From TrEMBL:
NADP(+) binds at residues 204-205, 216, 369. It catalyses: 2 reduced [2Fe-2S]-[ferredoxin] + NADP(+) + H(+) = 2 oxidized [2Fe-2S]-[ferredoxin] + NADPH. GO terms for molecular function: ferredoxin-NADP+ reductase activity. This is ferredoxin--NADP(+) reductase.
Length: 457
């Protein structure tokens, strides 16, 4: 008897997701859940996953960080592996080398470069982008030596987005309040020694235009340690035209109430300066000693400078004016939008899709949107990958060998869990859920420590 002919099962495709932030992890989860024959490697240049959830979301937003439980779900050595501590591109594994071992690569590397204001004095010591400042207090290994000057009673944050509010709130809280977060011990020590009393948020447009979300704005009005003072040249009392969006209406109602509020003489004060644009940073001995701002007037939805200047007495200026992306070597890049050109996630070179190249998250859309926005964005990209799947090549090259050839020493999921356990252990010593390990060598040592070493203390 001869057996009936049967067709070979479809060959498995290996897909790399580069970037273990929310967009990369939502993409990995969608690929794993697709039921198609795919093996997924999530690659990140850091030994720890979660991107800006770990290194951006403010440390006191503990509830927000619990999304980590969802983002961790796809990791299963059988289908989704973590390859941390592997940088792709310059100084790491070249993209061409990676292409030899994967059928497709989903780029999810975010946009990490601080935008600049383009005003004189930005290079002075004490002038810092929010990316760097937030990374410092979040324990990002690239910024442990930032040492921002907190020794002057005044500081300024430029921008009217949620990142500006995060920076202002972290500096306005007492060190005891911040001790109950995951910030590294040296950051807590620096905040404890902080002399900052006046936090000036410099906003170029009016109260009806701010990009804050009401929930985040409300938090600065509820701080136990700080007052909020609204500087609006009487704009709110005179009546501002009702904005269309509900979010803006809620912000306006809150700001109007605060403008009429009495100061409570709390130790710190957050000043909201509307209709002010930075024009230059002034230095003394190479360090920021003042920020000069120009008064603006509203002209429709835009503002116009009046030429009238004011001086804010500050020793630190943090720009929270958004982010830019670095080009991914080997991929097309649109410098004007700071994104990789794409159609629904397929990378485009002119009008032509680049075979096997996809993008998701901030590198695809630009640096706006909350964590959840990345889920639908990743699903769109994964739909494109799955549509193309059968036509993608099945590369022969061995991933481990290629990574080793380029000097990469990956941290796998089990090793990350060791580092995770070490952070929880350190948290126990400080009476909080977790304390970040920030120095790269310490992260790697904790990730590679024998399990038994973790049970100490
Ligand atoms: C300061 C700040 C606070 C925020 N707070 C909130 C909040 O409270 N709530 C909210 O909903 N949203 C918040 N957001 C927005 C949210 O963090 C983003 O929407 C989201 O993180 C974008 O995801 P992403 O995956 O595109 O990028 P990212 O989160 O930036 O992830 C990119 C990943 O790629 C890795 N990577 C970069 N280059 C390479 C390379 N060459 N090789 C390998 N890996 C690489 C990085 O290490 C990183 O892990 C905040 C954003 C910022 C900037
Ligand atoms: N808790 C949260 O949910 C949370 C926390 C942090 C971040 N996020 C999200 O992450 C994304 C990024 O946040 P973000 O705060 O970086 O960006 P953002 O919301 O885009 O805000 C950037 C701010 O910078 C201002 N700005 C830009 N260029 C300027 C200049 N040259 N001079 C003065 N001001 C300038 C903008 O003013 P104009 O409005 O006048 O353009 C805007 O107010 C957002 O989608 C945000 O909602 C969410």
């Amino acid at each position: 008897m001869t057996s009936a002919p049967h067709s070979d099962p479809a060959p498995r495709r290996r897909i790399a997701v580069v970037g273990a932030g929310p967009s990369g992890l939502y993409a990995a989860a969608a690929l794993a859940a697709s039921g198609r024959p795919v093996d997924v490697d999530v690659i990140d240049r850091l030994p720890a996953p979660y991107g800006l959830v770990r290194y951006g979301v403010a440390p006191d937003h503990v509830k927000m960080k619990s999304v980590i439980r969802v983002l961790a779900k796809p990791f299963d050595p059988a289908t989704v592996r973590f390859l941390g501590n592997v940088r792709v591109g310059e100084g790491g594994v070249p993209l061409e080398a990676l292409r030899t071992c994967y059928s497709a690569i989903v780029h999810a590397t975010g946009t990490s470069v601080d935008r600049s204001l383009g005003v004189p004095g930005e290079d002075l010591e004490g002038s810092i982008g929010s990316g760097a400042f937030v990374s410092w207090y979040s324990g990002h290994p690239d910024f442990t030596k930032l040492d921002p000057p907190l020794d002057h009673p005044g500081m300024a944050v430029v921008g009217a987005g949620n990142v500006a509010l995060d920076v202002a709130r972290v500096l306005a809280k007492s060190a005891d309040e911040m001790a109950d977060t995951d910030i590294p011990d040296p950051v807590l020590d620096a905040l404890r020694a902080s002399k900052i009393r006046d936090i000036h948020i410099v906003i170029r447009r009016g109260p009806q235009h701010v990009k804050f979300t009401p929930a985040e704005l409300r938090q600065i009005g509820e701080l136990a340690n700080a007052d909020v003072v609204v500087h609006d040249d009487g704009l709110l009392a005179a009546g501002v035209p009702e904005p269309e969006e509900r979010r803006q209406q809620q912000n306006l109602a809150m700001l109007t109430e605060w403008a009429a509020r009495e100061s409570k003489d709390r130790p710190r004060c957050i000043h909201l300066h509307f209709l002010r644009s930075p024009v230059r940073l002034v230095g003394t001995d190479g360090r920021v000693s003042a920020l000069v701002v120009e008064r603006n007037v509203v002209d429709g939805d835009r503002v116009r400078g009046t030429g009238e200047e004011e001086v804010l007495d500050v020793g630190l200026v943090v720009r929270a004016i958004g982010y830019a992306a670095e080009p991914v070597p080997g991929l097309p890049f649109d410098a004007a939008t700071g994104t990789v050109p794409n159609a629904a996630g397929r990378v485009l070179d002119g009008d032509t899709p680049v075979p096997g190249a996809y993008v998701t998250g901030w590198i695809k859309r630009g640096p706006t949107g909350v964590i959840g926005t990345n889920k639908s964005c990743a699903h769109e990209t994964v739909a494109a990958v799955l549509e193309d799947l059968d036509s993608l090549p099945v590369p022969e090259a061995d991933v481990e060998a290629v990574l080793a050839q380029h000097g990469a020493e990956p941290v796998d999921w089990t090793s990350w869990l060791r580092l995770d356990a070490e952070e929880v252990r350190r948290g126990g010593l400080r009476g909080t859920q977790r304390v970040k390990v920030a120095e790269l060598d310490e992260m790697l040592a904790a990730a590679r420590a024998a399990d038994s070493a973790l049970s100490r203390g």
